[in-house]
Amino acid sequence: MGGVMGCVGKGGTTVVTLPSTPAATPDSSGNPRNKVALRPGRSLMDWVRLGHSGVDLTGTGGKLVDVTPQQLAKHNKRGDLWMSLRGKVYNVTAYLEFHPGGEDELMRGAGIDATTLFNEVHKWVNFETMLQKCLVGQLVEARPFFHKPSFLPLPKALKPNNNNNKKSDSSASKTLVVPSPSRAPVASPETSISAPSPDPVSTPATSPWPLAPAQLPTPKYDWFQNDTHLTLAIYTRWSEVTPGHVVVVRRATQDIKVVCYIQNMTYTLHVTLNKPVREGCEVRAGKAGKVEVVLGKLQAGQRWSSLGKTLEGHGQYIKTRDREPEYVRCRVKKKENLTHDTRLMLVEVPSDTLLPVPMGYHVYIRLPGGENVARPYTPVGPGLKQESEEEEKEELGRRVHLLVKIYPDGALTPGLDELEMESEVEVSLPEGTFTQDRVTAATTITHTLVLLAAGTGITPMIRLTLAALNNKRKVLFILFNKTEEDIPWRKELSTLMEQHSSLLTVIHVLSQPAEGWPGETGRVREELLEKYVPRPSSQQPLYLCVCGPTPFTKLTLSLLREVGHSEVACHAFQS
């Protein structure tokens, strides 16, 4: 869904639209900017002016009310359109005509909790600011409107069976921000963009692919000290945790936040330390899932009586996708041209911060002061070459490499393109659903890793390709672009294919080829997939990853299902 704007409907109610992506013809070029032409007087500034005009955009006279899902569902049409986002209900009637993604796209969230739809397309958009004049109230749990008194007889079919149900649980299920150790949240399968099908593809019990991350208890923490150092210890109980799953953010000499990425969850330790510590830190991770963050005491020899005071978000253990974007101010250190309209940008994080990005995860980028405009980017690494262990350790958490496609009329990328060296840019903490189970499936368990990418959808595939080749896995990389000039790293891909001739195959498909192009042409289609992608086999399992504009991704997943590939063997990255 896209940016926010509006118009007043009948009866004083208002129509408002959330940012979204309109249904579009699948495009293999990698251009995700699916917008619709708005009528004159429907720009973002027009929406801002409408919000300050004194017109009641809430339809409730400005009074905040509690709204149940049943009540929300009644406001599901043009002229009377409400939706819920992150627990709040908005009257978006007036915004319909202002929505950059079109009215039909906004109507997908009519009368429902549209948080998941919103997050799939533009989680980074600051909708609370843009829709603040449309706030109706909070979305609350539904309550039965009538309870039968206990002294009235129950129908025979509803009478309790005292033998089988001696206890009844009348408490409503709730999401705990900080779950207790005895009631750790149950992990559920990650949602992904998938094409609808009449029947789900069955998966054999012996399937090597992860159905859901293993359930883990809530982490615990402790601290230790000697005369010179302070150690924060977090017990994640996840045996595969590495320093690459641990973000450390220092806002001041005594304010420290540690965020551990544990499968599809994040755990946060956030404290103001009792005394100042030195700049920098060391992160260690043990096989039993213990994470240590080692800090140097500013005053050696002093014994601390306590660690300090906890701050907002401390102890939070939630799904990664539910975290609010949090930004770190970084500096641009290098830019180079990859194609006529794409740049490779090197960003360095502050010296007192460690910002590693797990494989397949993305970060949001925005310019300082541009809180309402941010876009997701998947870091690509320094290039198409294997780093040594020393280089990887030095790089980890200190630098972020981004492939940025410049759109002349874009809200963000022209500004990124104009940044000088040492300019500041804001980078969010990592987000994503490509858990370690999926990384293992794609780079270790699989016989062949199949990658289908359109345009800048190449970004999550770079690190996956190198990791799979390092593990001697076969990789089939089918890359869709408009023209030869649009192919990033074309020479480097050719060189990599020569170096790994028995493992790596790269197929380029152009939708607007020049005369004489010897390769594949057109767009993603069943005939093309049948020609290159092997059939599913239990003896030689395939894992497939797809990334590109949403229409491309949905069509590709649908075609893969039609030729027999199971959903659990496919992963769709956010474009």
From TrEMBL:
Pfam families linked: Cyt-b5, FAD_binding_6, NAD_binding_1
Gene3D superfamilies assigned to the protein according to its UniProt record, in alphabetical order: 2.60.40.790, Cytochrome b5-like heme/steroid binding domain, Nucleotide-binding domain of ferredoxin-NADP reductase (FNR) module, Translation factors
Swiss-Prot/TrEMBL GO biological process terms: superoxide metabolic process
Reaction(s) catalysed by this chain's protein: 2 Fe(III)-[cytochrome b5] + NADH = 2 Fe(II)-[cytochrome b5] + NAD(+) + H(+)
InterPro entries: Cbr1-like_FAD-bd_dom (IPR008333), CS_dom (IPR007052), Cyt_B5-like_heme/steroid-bd (IPR001199), Cyt_B5-like_heme/steroid_sf (IPR036400), Cyt_B5_heme-BS (IPR018506), Cytochrome_b5/Flavoprotein_Rdt (IPR051872), FAD-bd_FR_type (IPR017927), FNR_nucleotide-bd (IPR039261)
One Gene Ontology MF term: cytochrome-b5 reductase activity, acting on NADH
Stretches for region Disordered: 156-208
Enzyme class: oxidoreductase
Protein family membership: Belongs to the flavoprotein pyridine nucleotide cytochrome reductase family.
Protein name, per record: Cytochrome b5 reductase 4
Protein source organism: Petrolisthes cinctipes (Flat porcelain crab)
Source organism phylogeny: Eukaryota, Metazoa, Ecdysozoa, Arthropoda, Crustacea
